[in-house]
Design a protein that fits this description.
48% helix; single chain; 2 domains; alpha/beta; 240 residues; six-stranded parallel β-sheet; Rossmann fold
Length: 240
């Protein structure tokens, strides 16, 4: 069936799956998966083992997977993390869908996970097609105003060209940037994650592979949400 949603909001089951009485179990699952990943267990088998042990649904397993990371990955990510306030007069790269959908979800009341590495991540997903929703333009404006407040030189956005409607979103991003005088470039790439890493510039992303391989990154989704979306539905899955 076609996706007819007009909001990037909460999934119908999220109220139950991520209710407060589920948090301890989910945090334990994140800790268990992180322990296995630190010992180089394959992600698929490790997630199944942890999910079965804690009797998690598929959506809860996705949340655990997005929130976990091994000790080596954690140390590397934290070591390469830069404060957004240090990006003045720099050109940064933006993981377009990653950032935009997270902010859309936060605005729409969707679940925002706080992972072991301190990143804020959504549970929306793309599934091969990007659908503009009512939160899209407000999210773009929030991102633009926030980046402008950092006094960055330029934002290079990268969008996945195989995702349907990427070209349309590129047009929207450039139109909004032009209206506000923001120095943005928007590029359609078959593999934007690799472009983010190979650019050598500071990346704005919460994608685990990007964070593990980039030269440096800034936790913009987190700082933006904390500063501009105080009512976001946050679920902290860090243990300890």
């Amino acid at each position: 069936m076609p996706d007819k949603r007009t909001h990037r909001g909460q999934h119908p089951q999220d109220g139950r799956l991520f209710a407060p009485d589920q948090h301890v179990r989910l945090r334990e699952a994140v800790a268990d998966l992180s322990w296995l990943l630190a010992r180089e267990y394959a992600v698929t088998s490790a997630l199944k083992l942890v999910g079965d042990r804690h009797s998690l649904t598929e959506r809860q397993r996705m949340a655990v997977w997005r929130s976990a990371c091994g000790d080596e990955s954690l140390a590397g990510r934290l070591g390469r993390m830069r404060s957004p306030g240090d990006l003045t007069h720099e050109t940064i790269t933006v993981d377009g869908y990653n950032l935009l959908i997270t902010i859309e979800s936060a605005l729409g009341g969707g679940v925002i996970l706080i992972g072991r590495d301190g990143c804020y991540r959504d549970l929306a997903g793309l599934h091969g097609t990007y659908r503009k929703v009512k939160e899209t333009l407000p999210a773009i404006l929030l991102i633009g105003e926030y980046l402008a407040g950092l006094s960055i030189e330029q934002a290079e956005w990268y969008l996945d060209s195989p995702v349907s409607n990427s070209g349309r979103l590129r047009g929207v991003l450039l139109d909004v940037a032009g209206q506000h005088g923001w120095n943005w470039q928007v590029r359609l790439e078959h593999n934007p994650d690799r472009q983010l890493v190979e650019s050598g510039k500071t990346a704005v992303s919460s994608d685990s592979w990007v964070l593990d391989h980039c030269a440096s990154w800034a936790n913009v989704p987190r700082t933006l949400i904390e500063a501009r979306i105080p009512g976001a539905h946050l679920i902290d899955l860090r243990s300890g």
